[in-house]
Each structure stands twice: as structure tokens, then as C-alpha cells.
Write a structure and sequence with these properties.
Rossmann fold; about 325 residues; about 15% strand; alpha/beta
Amino acid sequence: MHGIHGRHSMADDKHLHDLYGGDLGKTVSVFTDTAVRRTRHLKPDIIHSHDWMTFGAGVMASRITGRPFIAHVHSTEMDRTNGKPHEWIFGHEQWGLNQASHIIAVSRYTKNVLTSSYGIPPKKITVIHNGAPIPPARHLSRKDAKLRHPLVLFLGRLTVQKGPHEFLSAAKRVLEQRPDVQFIVAGDGYMLPELIERSCALGIQDAVFFTGKVDAAEARALYAEADCFVMPSTSEPFGLVALEAIAHGTPVILSKQSGASEVVAHAMTVDYWDSDKMADCILTILREKPLSEQLSSEAQHVLHTLTWERQAQNVITLYKDVIHSFAPIPTPA
């Protein structure tokens, strides 16, 4: 498969398996061949592929049809690996981005990653944020705060990108001042055993609950029950979980290294690595009820303005612009 070559170590292979499982290169190659074969008879106006695993199919379809190819970036290898990318994934990702007629990034944060780490010209990238996943929910009634412990929620894949280690470090600092607070780590991933051990090493195992994978109904209940939601991602192109928490009336603390922090006006933001500041934000939300209620209500404005319908229209407008300006690049026979 074009662009997926290069040296990589046994440690890289284990990391790759942890993130993606199995023989990813072969799977992507089979997908590319199958997608191109099954769509060869079509005559599209534009080809639109999402993230690097589909870029090969998009590039090949563009060459066969002579139509423009848009690469839509929801996450990069730099995000997923905390800046330590697997060589051949990074190479294929960069190749696909260079081949694209135009690129959609889901945030300004992602656009900056594409320009600084992949060398993509800024004028080739249009930012179109994700839409809000759900409208404001009918909030499940929270238990009387006087009858239970305050709850702080992390929900996401347990990978280095999502910042679970940083969440536990902040939890340690909060518990030094508020031993009554409980922390929920909801989600599954290859880091789960490591994180359980880490909570024990920090001496906070009695205050941290690991739920494992949760379904949609369980996630809704957790959002509604939590007094505070923390998204401590080390590099988050967007972060739909933040909008899900907001939809359930939960105050949010967001990593500044995220796309969601660009669109949510009423949230506390913190550098992912600053566990002390993260802990201060948690303590402030738990202590200051008027502030908590203001964050809960005011943050929901984004759910009404950042709709999927509006963002889809932005994509359609870009389609028209790209089609109008497209000039096919001749490929060698």
C-alpha cells in the first residue's frame, strides 16, 4: 500500500496493536482495494474520506474518476500518540493529506497540528467544527447533594491521548483537601490495568471507581449524576463528550489542547499537564454552587448554535467551492 513503509521497532508494533489491534496495514489495504473496486462504476462530483485509514481509497477513487478528493481529519497520529507517531501511519497520513484537493479539520487546534507537524499549507485547510451530538436532555434528577458524595467524571477511551493519568493526578490533589469526593473513570482501553495500579500507588483507590466500558444509557446516567465532568485530553481534535456532558447539565472542565474549548464559551479550561490547576477548577466547581449552576446553564447555548444541520451546510458550501476550482492533476500512465 502506497505510503505505508518504513522502519519500526517491536515496541512500535506493540503500541500499534494496543491502539488498533491485529494486522492493520493489511486490513487498510484490503479496504482500499475493495472500496475502489465496488465504486469504480460511479461518477461522483467529489470524493470525501474520513481519517487516514480511508485516504488511500479516496486518492485512488480521485485518480480513477478525475474528481476532487477531500480529506476530513477528525484525529491525527500525532494526537493519538502524544507526539510520538508510528512511522508508517504518520507517513501514510501525510501522503494522503498531500494528495488531497482540500482538507477539512474539525477544529483550529487540528488545523495547527496539520500545518506544524505535517507541513500542510494553511490555505489548503478549512475548519468545520463537529455538530452538537444531542439536544439538551431532560435532565435526570440528581440525588440530594447532602445525601451523597460529590462525583467527578471522566468518560472516554483509556489511552494516553485522553489524559487519564492527568485525571488521577488531579484527583489526588483534590482528595488532599476534600476526602469526601469520589471519582469515576468510565471507559475501557489498553491502559485500564495500568491506571488501576496507578490509583493504588497514589493511595486513592478507595475514592476512584473504574466502570469499564459503558453503553449509551449508562453514559447518560453518569453525566446526569456527576457534579463535574473533566476532559483532560493531551491532544483532542474536538471532544464530543464535552458537549454530551453539557447537554446533561453538567459543568465541564476542558483541556486547552482541544477543539471543544474553541466553541464552548462557558467552561473552565486548563492545560492538560497542569494537574494543580485542574484540581483547583474541580474544587471551585464543587464549592461554588452559583458558578456551577451558571456554567451548567450558559454552556448549553453551544448546543443550539453548533447544530449538525448548520455544519453540514458548511460542508456543502465547501464542496461547491472545491468543485468549482478543481483542476485535475495528470497522473503518469
